[in-house]
Structure prediction request, 226 residues.
Amino acid sequence: MQISFAQKSFIFPKVKQQGSSIAQLTLNNWKVIEMVQGDLNNDQTEDLALIFESNQTIDETRTYGDNNSEIIKETQKPRILAIYFKDKNGSAYHLSTQNNDFILRSEEGGKLGDPLQQVEIKDQQLFLRFRGGSEWRWELGYTFKFQNKDWFLTNAINLYFNQNTGDMTERIYDFTSRQLFTTVGNLHRRDIANQKTSEVLFFSQLRTFKTFKKPWAWEIMPNVYL
Prediction:
């Protein structure tokens, strides 16, 4: 008789709804790998953005190329983004949102290693920056703002360049004004060789953490992924 055991799929824990310190908010078997503080909802208190990484390595299926297909299985430690608003009296943090998909994992940067480069709170916005690749390298930046009771993507930047030749394409997206600014040319001769264009961005509605699954998952124009 043969007995087979089905492998349990990984289930993300729910982060804590509130706490008075980072230690209180940290989940068992997870660690904080990034922590930034700053006002995110214009109430003059220091809010909190945390990125947790699991102590457990799992097989994780991740989306690439569009917002629907899950096509690549990777063995890595999952990550969680948790954003907390602080009480006006400063006594406790309260969960605003949890996102299990958007933060790139340590194995998703190619030869450059961990792609997570920067988490910052500035001008009541959350900035997330990633990079990766090898000879051809990419840098991605996303700016989210809390408005109308949700987290909306307001700006983004996508730089793709050759480390050796300097050949580059840079796209800067302003979703509020619906404009795309594109620069094509060379990193080393920006002022001389580069061509800059601007065009109107066409999309139905602003993306949020819920509707923008992760970096590289939005085909914003034919064959152009953000």
About this structure: DSSP finds two helices and 16 strands in the chain.
